[in-house]
């Protein structure tokens, strides 16, 4: 019997491993034909997909069960089919906890540390972690189907997080050997764990108002002015990420990641305000509705910039000087 323990992996990545196990067992049956035979269970070629379909269904049923969702304990289960056994454990974390921005107590790392602190320490315009993850994704992951949408293995992401936080000397070797979805996941995690969003708490209400403007000229002026208002490290990092995501979207026929898909993945990550800001003026009874409305607006903000012609840092700064001297 083949036993696969599922821990800290995304649901899509396991099917391939299940199918590989089927193929290995069938090949072993052919190799031992000249030796005394022991019964070998024949498996259908799509066993992995069918089995994982059952796992998905089980997870969905548990997610919809109020008792399971409210429990803080791990729930263990086993599903078996054609000699393959999948054992998995799961628990659910509330949206508020999973999206909470928590500043790091150690300012020597990069995760949970303000972006201006990191760039000042590195003497760089864009954090090293952002530059290296983008470079690796463009090198060997830009054609990957579902890049940035499909999660990487959580243990791999945590290993990369630790390496960047401790400035491990073999980080480049780790990146070259690591699954590309783990690298993409590390980049998303970095932005998600910033103490305040990349586009800042201070400007968040203005971004929400700007994207809602109906007049195209007024919206253009407002959205560009907001970019000019960002601190330099935030602006440089945002523009770097923006151009990268546009290059990813150029490969949409291959990777299936459109500008809208990328905006959906990154919008809330780059804009979602810190806890203190997000709870101001909200009533508990309508928190869910407000959250959903805000997420849609966050996606639209990033999509606006993704669909905009190339934005130059130097040009934005020249316009800043023009406006300040004109006044």
In short:
GO terms for molecular function: GTPase activator activity. The chain is mostly helical and 327 residues long.
How do the strands and helices of this protein lay out in sequence?
Elements (H helix, E strand, L loop, with lengths): L1 E5 L7 H18 L15 H17 L2 H5 L4 E7 L2 E7 L4 H4 L16 H8 L5 H13 L13 H12 L5 H7 L2 H13 L11 H8 L4 H13 L3 H18 L2 H4 L3 H13 L3 H4 L8 H21 L5 H14 L1
Parallel strand pairs: 1-3
Antiparallel strand pairs: 2-3
Helix pairs in contact: 1-2, 6-9, 6-12, 7-9, 10-11, 11-17, 14-16
Gyration radius from CA atoms, angstroms: 23 Å
Low-confidence stretches: 1-12, 21-41, 281-285, 323-327
Q: Work out the number of β strands.
A: 3
Share of residues in helices: 55-70%
General form:
globular
Mean pLDDT: 79
Largest sheet: 3 strands, mixed
Proportion of β residues? 5-15%
Class by SSE composition: mainly alpha
N to C succession of SSEs: EHHHEEHHHHHHHHHHHHHH
Strand order of the largest sheet: 1-3-2
- In whole angstroms, the N-to-C terminal distance is 77 Å
Number of helices, counting only DSSP H or I runs of 4 residues or more: 17
Domain Rho-GAP: 113-313
Pfam families: RhoGAP (PF00620)
InterPro entries: Abr/Bcr (IPR037769), Rho_GTPase_activation_prot (IPR008936), RhoGAP_dom (IPR000198)
GO molecular function: GTPase activator activity
Q: Top keywords for this entry?
A:
327 residues, mainly alpha, three-stranded mixed β-sheet, disordered C terminus, Rho-GAP domain-containing protein, Abr/Bcr, RhoGAP_dom
